[in-house]
């Protein structure tokens, strides 16, 4: 189906931060499968995990116990707020599970009328019905029938409206990305997240964090909300959890998940043995101190250098945003055109984003030397963009 506006680039193979097209051209990949290939391309530990598991067992369905699920779930719970985990194949499925978990929680509490879920403008939670209604981006919802009941949107930073949402007796949950990805790399202020936790506890509302893109070490801590020193009740993760292999998970406290009893939810492929083997290998690596320390070191360098480029190219760069290695550069020229210039003129791959920005999303194990190369290529793209803007 013609639903993708693809770049004119046929990819063939990758290694680390580098990607090669079918004609042999080498690119520096700062898209990482849209924040997914957290350890770069063809990481040896992930490749070996696939090989080892593929020779034993791929799929049996969840009518049987799958030991790999217990192993990965134990790791996730040990390094998060969560008590329980539901495995999915993607981030949007993890969000669907999170939304269902929140509403079932209130049913279990004898308050089935509490169905209202509040999202924020600029958010992105995936492409399933619940996910698009939670984000309510018109470009994703138009043409797919009437708005689903119980979903509401708030303006980012509108504290009065958020207060009213918490005080709504039918409120079930608030869903947000601690650091927005697609919507423009906006980070929620840490004091606001702590205030949300207080208000949620006061009014019996659940907090759902979508850390599909900003979690798994991307911001320099394993989970983005750790910077604020608070925790959600439910969290959706995916992308980097499999290092490029399709896997997602919905994490929750035992209290928040108490309505998720036998038969109310399920998945055919979710948590299959192959996904669990790769997920375990990826999580072990991404959650290590070595990777998290590297993210903070390289992110500090990249952000400093990008701010420097913003000062030198005010006719190209408006501002630099983001946290860790989830960086956004808001542009003067059209961001889609800039992506093409970076790709064709500098052999640098960057991702698009809302609010006319490009995202710089390198692997979490990118070296300082590779980061310097990325800055040099970004500078070259800015120089080319300057001639286009002037023209």
Topology, pairings included?
Elements: E1 11-15, E2 18-21, E3 26-30, H1 32-35, H2 44-54, H3 67-78, E4 84-88, H4 91-108, E5 116-120, H5 129-135, H6 138-141, E6 151-154, H7 159-167, E7 171-176, H8 190-203, E8 206-210, E9 234-237, E10 248-252, H9 273-286, H10 289-312, E11 317-323, E12 326-331, H11 335-346, E13 348-353, E14 357-360, H12 368-390
Parallel strand pairs: 3-13, 5-6, 5-7, 7-8, 8-9
Antiparallel strand pairs: 1-2, 2-3, 4-10, 9-10, 11-12, 12-14, 13-14
Helix pairs in contact: 2-9, 3-9, 10-12, 11-12
Explain what this protein looks like in three dimensions:
This protein is of the alpha/beta class and 391 residues long. Helices cover 39% and strands 18% of the residues. The chain contains 12 helices and 14 strands. The protein has helices at 32-35, 44-54, 67-78, 91-108, 129-135, 138-141, 159-167, 190-203, 273-286, 289-312, 335-346, 368-390; strands at 11-15, 18-21, 26-30, 84-88, 116-120, 151-154, 171-176, 206-210, 234-237, 248-252, 317-323, 326-331, 348-353, 357-360. The chain has a 7-stranded mixed sheet with strand order 1-2-3-13-14-12-11. A 7-stranded mixed sheet has the order 4-10-9-8-7-5-6, with helices on both faces. Helix 8 links the parallel strand 7 (171-176) and strand 8 (206-210). The chain is globular and about 65 Å long. The model has no long low-confidence stretch (mean pLDDT 97).
């Amino acid at each position: 189906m013609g639903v993708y506006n693809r770049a004119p680039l046929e990819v063939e193979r990758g290694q680390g931060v580098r990607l090669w097209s079918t004609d042999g051209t080498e690119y520096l990949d700062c898209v990482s499968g849209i924040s997914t290939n957290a350890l770069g391309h063809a990481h040896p530990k992930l490749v070996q995990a696939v090989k080892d598991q593929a020779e034993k067992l791929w799929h049996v369905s969840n009518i049987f116990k799958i030991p790999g699920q217990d192993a990965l779930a134990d790791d996730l719970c040990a390094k998060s707020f969560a008590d329980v985990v539901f495995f999915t194949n993607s981030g949007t499925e993890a969000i669907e599970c999170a939304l269902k978990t929140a509403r079932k929680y209130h049913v279990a509490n004898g308050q089935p009328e509490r169905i209202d879920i509040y999202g924020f403008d600029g958010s992105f939670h995936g492409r399933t019905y619940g996910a698009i209604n939670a984000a309510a981006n018109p470009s994703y919802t138009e043409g797919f029938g009437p708005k689903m009941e119980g979903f509401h949107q708030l303006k980012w930073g509108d504290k009065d409206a958020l207060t009213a949402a918490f005080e709504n007796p039918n409120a079930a949950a608030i869903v947000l990305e601690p650091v927005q990805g697609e919507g423009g790399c906006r980070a929620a202020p840490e004091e606001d997240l702590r205030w949300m936790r207080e208000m949620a506890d006061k009014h019996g509302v659940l907090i759902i964090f979508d850390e599909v893109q900003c979690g798994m070490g991307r911001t320099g801590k394993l989970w983005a909300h750790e910077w604020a020193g608070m925790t959600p009740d439910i969290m959706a993760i995916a992308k980097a959890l499999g290092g490029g292999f399709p896997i997602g998970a919905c994490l929750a406290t035992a209290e928040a998940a108490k309505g998720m009893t036998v038969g109310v939810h399920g998945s055919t492929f979710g948590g299959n043995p192959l996904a669990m083997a790769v997920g375990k290998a990826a999580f072990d690596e991404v959650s290590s101190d070595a990777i998290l320390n590297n993210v903070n070191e390289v992110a500090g360098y990249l952000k400093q250098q990008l701010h420097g480029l913003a000062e030198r190219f005010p006719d190209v760069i408006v501002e630099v945003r983001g946290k860790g290695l989830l960086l956004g550069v808001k542009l003067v020229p059209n961001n889609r055109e800039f992506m093409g210039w970076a790709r064709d003129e500098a052999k640098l791959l960057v991702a698009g984003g809302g609010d006319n920005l490009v995202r710089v999303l390198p692997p979490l194990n990118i070296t300082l030397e590779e980061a310097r190369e990325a800055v040099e290529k970004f500078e070259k793209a800015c120089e080319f963009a300057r001639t286009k803007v002037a023209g």
